[in-house]
Amino acid sequence: MKVCWNMTPRDALLITACVFICPLAAQAKSPARTSPGPAKNVECWEIMQDNKSFGPIKMNLAPQGARVEIQNLHVAVVCQPPTWRVSVFNPVTKQELSSSIEKWARVGLPMDEKQGEGIPTEKGKASKSTYVGMNAILFKYPCNFREKDLKHRSFIHFTGANYYASSDVALPRQEVQFLRGLFRTPDVGSIPLALILDSSAGPRITFKANSATKTKIPLSDFSYPKEFKPVSTASELTMGYLKTKFDLIQEFAGEMSGAAADQEQANKDKVKEKEKEKEKEKDKDKKRDKEKDADKHH
Predict the structure, then answer these.
(1) Maximal CA-CA distance, the chain
(2) Which of 153, 154, 164, 217 could covalently link to 131 via disulfide, CB atoms 3.0 to 4.6 Å apart?
(3) Which residues, at least 6 apart from 179, have a Cβ–Cβ distance to it below 8 Å?
(4) pLDDT tens-digit profile of 132-147?
């Protein structure tokens, strides 16, 4: 079976737009916590990850629920019992994209049956391993596909995939499905830790965990947002945020343009003041010359 973890061109375009446009408007911040819940802390795993498609990701995982913050998209994804409904929301635009856990596990973040790529079902060749201090299983998969290398005007040939998943972290079955849909990984292990592809240009990292620690967070961090505007596609959620940021950029550009115009006028006023001072000095010189001439005649 050919295994290929690729984003669709449409998804990649939207994600790229977010990555490059959003930082121009404001520094990225973690999505704000939403609806308040009981003042209770729960122990969870906190995984910090670098992701080729999404950028930095923070995951908080516990039997009580899951929360994933995707910094470059400025969205958070949460799910919790008893329904395990998946909510992708943006606190800036107050928009929410919702899905059943079954559909999410099938198609992942695009949440569109037509866009969702098939998620691998084979378990691959397994061996015991460790990753960021966690006991893990390494699954090796054969693959055979090419990708354009625009920089060198050639093709990169991919020959295998190395998938690391935690082996001894007990999470509810629905939460494992949630992670599987998010990362489009095989139904093995529990927490996706890394996916590294073997290629003719050397190892290529699709995603990798940088740290895995146990911590405590408020139970309310797993809560669903309240009174957010529902949208039906991931594109709407992404473009809504882009529009908000574009409006901010335009506003910022307008302010800068106004400030530049004010500065230009101020510079012109300074030039005029200097010219007036020069004229005054000339008048003084002429007056002194006349006084000298008058003294000579006397």
Answers:
(1) 117
(2) 164
(3) 61, 66, 185, 190, 191, 192
(4) 999 999 988 888 777 8
Amino acid at residue number 46: E
CA distances from 235 to 116, 158, 177, 239 (A): 13, 29, 23, 6
State the Cα–Cα distance between residues 277 and 183, nearest whole angstrom: 71
Cα–Cα distance measured from residue 47 to residue 166, given in angstroms and rounded to the nearest whole number? 11
Work out the burial of residue 37: count CB atoms within 10 Å of its CB; fewer than 13 is exposed, 13-18 middle, 19 or more buried.
middle
Token duo for residue 204? 């290529």
Total-model pTM: 0.65
* DSSP character string of 201-256: TS-EEEEEEEEEEEEEEEGGGGPPPSSPEEESSHHHHHHHHHHHHHHHHHHHHHHH
Taking only the tens place, the pLDDT of each residue in 16-71 is 444 444 444 444 445 555 554 455 899 999 999 998 878 899 999 999 999 999 88
